[in-house]
Write a structure and sequence with these properties.
The protein is α/β, with parallel strands linked by helices and 134 residues long. It has six helices and five strands, in the order E-H-H-E-H-H-E-H-H-E-E. It has one domain: 5'-nuclease (Rossmann fold, 3-Layer(aba) Sandwich), CATH 3.40.50. The longest helix is centred in the middle third of the chain and has 14 residues.
Length: 134
């Protein structure tokens, strides 16, 4: 079973039905729900998703969406080691650096699913582009 870190943009594509990415993103979440892949998020992803969804929906509705997401994914931890590694690396985007090292420290993540390849170019994990190449 593939074990994947699902970046914020992929989650948001599905929740906001952002075309042309929503179909693929929803399929990824469907694979998590069916147990065909093991999806991981970080606390930072949950925070980002909450913040952006809260712009368009009430707190209770957003919390319910996050609870549904939590049922089909697992949460990676972030600690001092993750922050130190993120601060001392060649990543241009600190948030993505945190995600990357959280996935690496977990030891069980095979790849990162994102639409933001450039910010993960220094990752030692496989990075899969979820956007439209056309």
């Amino acid at each position: 079973m593939d074990r994947v870190l699902i970046d914020s943009d992929v989650i948001l594509d599905s929740l906001f039905d952002r075309e042309p990415f929503a179909e693929f993103s929803s399929a990824i979440l469907g694979l998590c729900e069916s147990g065909k892949i093991k999806g991981f998020l970080t606390p930072l992803i949950y925070s980002n998703v909450y913040y952006l969804l809260r712009q368009t929906a009430k707190h209770d509705k957003v919390i319910e969406k996050l609870k549904q997401l939590l049922k089909i994914t697992d949460v990676l931890s972030m600690d001092r080691t993750v922050v130190e590694k993120a601060l001392n690396t060649g990543f241009k985007d600190f948030e993505d650096s945190l995600q990357n090292f959280s996935a690496i420290n977990n030891g069980n993540v095979d790849l990162i699913l994102t639409r933001n390849l450039k910010d993960y170019k220094n990752s030692e994990l496989g990075v899969f582009y979820t956007g439209n190449l056309s």
